[in-house]
Design brief:
Blueprint: E1 7-12, H1 16-21, E2 29-32, H2 39-48, E3 53-56, H3 62-73, H4 80-93, E4 102-106, H5 113-126, E5 131-134, H6 138-145, H7 158-163
Helix pairs in contact: 3-4
């Protein structure tokens, strides 16, 4: 699974596409609103970019996140999460998708509880400084770009981490002993 030369940032949450579009024209920033593109198409554009920062709203784990939240909200058929995990792993292995360097999560206080646990528990528990809660504005994102801190990368064993998600209970996500593999 590859990493790119640009710092890749996924903006996630309500209005993410508009916020990303608002970053267009900033020096050393390539803003790629997903729009009608598939995540793999956004990844192709991202991989070709020479900008210092590439910011988009095509979360490579979007289907996993939706399946995890639906699994714990009791709204998904049995097996949905496992299917989403295997599909994501296939795309990551084939380098059609790449995990971003950072997730900037817009207004997590306005999200449902399970979604908040996904962003600030599951993902932040795996790589704490890689998930940053943000105000939903292009100006806030632009200001944050230069302040992003280095820190632990995503788990080295992505397969074990992703396949272990059915055992990561929302209100325990990110806590020591929560079942998240961070090796």
């Amino acid at each position: 699974m590859r990493r790119l030369t640009s710092t890749v940032i996924v903006v996630a949450g309500h209005g993410a596409g508009d916020v990303v579009a608002g970053l267009d024209g900033l020096h050393n920033v390539r803003a790629i609103p997903r729009g009608e593109r598939r995540p793999a198409e956004v990844m192709e554009i991202t991989a070709r970019s020479a900008a210092t920062y590439v910011v988009h709203d095509a979360d490579p784990l979007a289907d996993v996140a939706a399946a995890w939240t639906a699994f714990f909200d009791g709204t998904a058929p049995v097996g949905t999460l496992e299917v989403a995990v295997e599909a994501a792993l296939g795309e990551l292995r084939a380098d059609r998708l790449v995990l971003p360097d950072y997730y900037l999560v817009l207004d997590p206080d306005g999200m449902t509880e399970t979604w908040r646990h996904w962003w600030l528990g599951v993902l932040a528990g795996a790589a704490p400084v890689r998930v940053v809660p943000m105000q939903a504005s292009a100006a806030a994102i632009a200001e944050e770009l230069g302040r992003l801190a280095a820190g632990r990368w995503w788990p080295a064993d992505l397969e074990a981490w992703l396949r272990g998600l059915p055992r990561v209970v929302p209100d325990r996500a990110g806590l020591p002993g929560s079942g998240v593999v961070v090796g």
